[in-house]
Input
Amino acid sequence: MNNPIPGNADLPVPHGKIFARNLTARADHVVRGNPAGSRPESGVDNCFPGLEFDQRNLDKCFFPGLTFDFHYGEGSRLIAVTDGAPTVRDLTGSDLQATQQEPSRLHLWAVCGRTEVDQSEAQAPVFAATGRGGMSMWRFVHDLLPGRIAIRLGPRPGFESPGESGVFGGSLNALRSMNWSRVDRDPTGAVTSAVLVADRADYITPDGVIDPSVYLPGDLTRSLCAPWQYDFRECGCFYWAASKPDISASPDGRFHPLNFQRSDRTTFPLDESTYEPRDALELDHPALITNWNVLPVVLNGREDDRKGIPDPLGLPSQRRNEVVEKLERLAVVEHALCLEYLYAHYSLNAPRELDPATPADAPVRKFFAAAQEVFAVAQDEMRHLRWVNEILGVLERPIILDPPTEDFEIQEESGTTFTLEGLTEAQLNWFIKVEETSDELNPEGIDGMYIRLHQTIMDKSEEYRQADRLSHLIKLIIDEGVDHFERFKKVKEHLAGFSEDAYLRPLTENPTDPLDQRLLELGDLNYAMLLGTLKDSLRRGDSSGGVVIEQSRRAMANFHEVNHLLASRGVAPRFKGPGPLGDGQATLAAAQAAMTLQQTISSLDGPALGDMMARHGADTQALIDALTP
Output
C-alpha cells in the first residue's frame, strides 16, 4: 500500500484501502460534484449512459476548444467555442449566435482520425455526417484514438451536409496529415465551411483527473439511465444488465429472429444485423416512452405469454454431486483450451508487438491482428479456469489446476482430444466449432454443460452457498463464449487469402541449440510458477491482499514473453507440467531454479536478452521474497 502525500493530513489512508493515484479517487472526503457512485468503493464500472457517468458527455469536448451536442436528431451541433483557443482559428462564440430561422448555426459535417491500432496514418477513415443523426455520429467520435484528428464544420445540419465532399484538396485526411486548418466566410462574415486540425482531447490532466477546466461538476452524470425506457432501448446485444431480449420469434415460431423493439407490430420483418438498419426498425426513445406497453412478454424465445417458465434443455436439475463432477471436468477443459489457443497464437508468424512503422499493406499486420484475437481468447480461458475453481472452492472442493494429459477428451461426443497444433485451417475450424453456440443445445457439450449448471443453481439456490455469485460467474463464462466465436471468425477473415506457409512458423519440438534448450526449461519453470501462484491466490482468497494475484500476473507475463521468444527462434513451447501441484514450497523451488537459469541465460546472448532476464529476475526475486517465511 502506498503512503499518502506528505502534508496532506486531511487525506488519511483507511486500513486496507488501496491508495489511488488520481486525485478524485484519492479524496477521502466528499468532493463537490462527485456523486456517491463515482467513488471507487461504490462504482460498478458502468457507463454510456450507465449508472456512473455518460460517456457522451465526455466526448462532447473531443476537439480542444469546441463543445458539441450529440443529442440531436439531425446531426451534431456545435454549441460552444473557447474564444482564443489556438485550435479553433478565428472561430468565436459569436459564430454560434442562433436566429429564429437557424436555431443552430454550425454543425459537425465530417470527422477524420485513426480508430484502430493497426491502422496507418494514411488509412485513417473519414466519417461523414451525411444521413446520420447526432447519436450515430457520436459512435464514430467515441472510437477516435488519441492523436491527430480533423473535423469539418458547416452551417447546415449534418444529416443534410455534404460531409467531406467539396473540401479543399478533396480529402480531409490529406488536410489532417498536412496539419492544415482553414475557416471560410461569406461577405457577411458567416462561416460557410471550416476545417480544423488538432490532437484529440486527452480528457484528463497529468494528475489523472478529468479536466476541471473543461467539465463542470455534474457534467458527466447528467443524462444517465433516466427515464428507464432510455436504458431499456440502449442496453442490448446480450449486455449483462439488459432487462429485455434483443431478438425473439413470432408466437408460432415461424419468424425468427425478430427485433423485439420493432415499431411495426403488425408484421414480422426479420431483424437486421447492422446498427443503422436495425435502428430504423425500432421504436425511438419518445415512442418507447409513450408506447412501451405494446411490447409483449417473451417466454421460451417467443412473443407469447401463454407458456410456462422457459427450460432451455428440457432436462431436470442436476444433483449436487453431478454439479461438482461437471465443474471438475470443465476446469480441465478450460485449461486444455487455454493451452491450445496459446500454442496456436505462438504458431502465427507475428511479433509480440507490432512496429508502428510497418507498412499498411504488409501481410504481417494481418497476421498480428489474427494473433491478438487468438491471444485475447486464451486470456479469457485462463480467467474461466480461475472462475471455475472459485466455484469449486465455494462448494468446498479441491482446486483443479493440473495440466491436461494428452489423452484428455475436450469434446467427449466427438472424441476430440487435447492436442497442441499450429493454427492450420483445420485447427481454426475446430476452434470455431468448439466455441459456437448451436441452435439445438447438447447437454453434454461445453455450452450445454454451463447452461445446465446455471439452470440448476438458479432452480436450487437454497442448496448452494453464495448462489448469486456462482450463477453470475457461470453466466459470464457463457456470455464470453459467444464473443470467442466471433473472435475466431475474425481470425479467419484476417488470414483469408494467405497460405498456411505464409502465416505459420515452422516450429521444432527438439531444439539442439543450448540457448533454446535452456529457454524451454525456463518456459516450463514459468509455467510451474504461474500455476503455483494461481493456486495459492485461489486458496487464500481475499486474505492475500492482492499480493499473490499480482505475482501470478507477473508470472503469466514472463511466461508469455519467453514463449514468444522461443517461437520467434523456431522452437515450439511445450507447456510441460510441473507434476502434481503441491503447496507453496513447490512454487518456491521452481522460482529458485528459474532464478539460477535466468542468470545462466543472460550470459549466453547479447544485451537485449540480458535486459529481459534482468526484468524477469526481479519479478522472480519478488516471488521468492513473498513465498519465503
Observations:
- The first strand starts at residue 66 and ends at 69.
- Residues 363-394 form the longest helix (32 residues).
